Amino acid sequence: MIVNAKMGANSGVTTGGKLFLETVLKNVKKATELANIPTDIYEFLKLPKRVIVVSIPIRDRDGNVTNYIGYRVQHNNALGPYKGGIRYYPTVDLDEITALAMLMTYKCAALSLPFGGAKGGVACNPKSLSQEEIEKITRRYTYMISDLIGPYIDIPAPDIYTDARVMAWIMDTYSQLKGRQVPEVVTGKPVYLGGCEGREEATGFGVCITTREACRVCGIPLKGARIAIQGFGNVGTHTALHLANLGAKIVAVSDSKGSIYNKEGFNVEKLVAHKKNTGTVLGFPSAIQISEKELLQLDVDVLIPAAIEGVITKEVAEKIQAKIITEGANGPTTSEGSAVLQERGIFVVPDILANAGGVTASYFEWIQNLQREHWPRDKVLKMLEEKMVKAFNDVVETTRRMELGMRDAVMVLSVSRVALAVQTLGIWP
Fold this sequence. Notes:
alpha/beta
């Protein structure tokens, strides 16, 4: 463990991260037992390979120095270089980042991508920081972890409150240190700096594709299907746009300020424009305001939690009326909530499958950068759809062969792939 700073008041320690990590470990443990994977392999997989904690001192606009804490957790690289996003959020803590790094390992394995799993974060509130301060944090953070990332080592990407501009700063900082342009060190960059066409919409597009496939398996026509989306950020927005284009009705959405509902469905393009102009979905014409609790309990065909982790608890799961849940967010369902959903027979498309469109597009960007190529959007989305459909069908086949629910099946499939790589490579020295 590399520790470059003491964890103080800015570390953002919360119990939420600990519970999230416990949920992930329970799912991995269960998968190893279902797949008859040796206990020693689980012991190997339950801890990350490397944990980096760094101090990020920044002089603010008033001349004062504030010390932020940054993290990078590299969980496993048996299948390839580490891959995972970087988030800037006030409550970021080590447990949360570790859980997310583990999920990335299995998400990449589920999609048969040649990557391992990592995750990064800085405990800060970007909404209270100037662009100059965010740039300083980004460049200092990149400098501190620069020896442990790279095109064949660890390739960061955007996550909560980081974007293409932040990725460009990471790329530039790393390139300046290396003395040459290295666009393949990071994905999610602006298209004109080597970014991938369609990358911004990729996660939402993948959620749309897996929702379409889930409706097919469950015998629910997607055209006219009633869908509620909790979270209307990047993932929720693009999910809604693509599903609406396929004829689905988006009847409810929410953001950090509130939730709205219209039983006839929204004009999603106008709703997106309203959110862009006002900063919230609230106040959209012909919509009534409801609580987030009401949104989660609506009588709809599909519920898509696309915000934060842990929203579908045991109590919430007992009252959900949706026939299908597609997890657009990372870890939106607790282990207790998951058990209730399975007992009630609700079809769940788990997060590591449903929202894998982003990392898949990142893989395409990495390939293009390494080869100094640039692919059109149509090619990217076509390849992404093929990858998502293949992975979905692999998981469904596992559910039928082993008589499992989707969550257990995708974990068995992905953990088995990682475990096989670990067993074949061996543990050295």
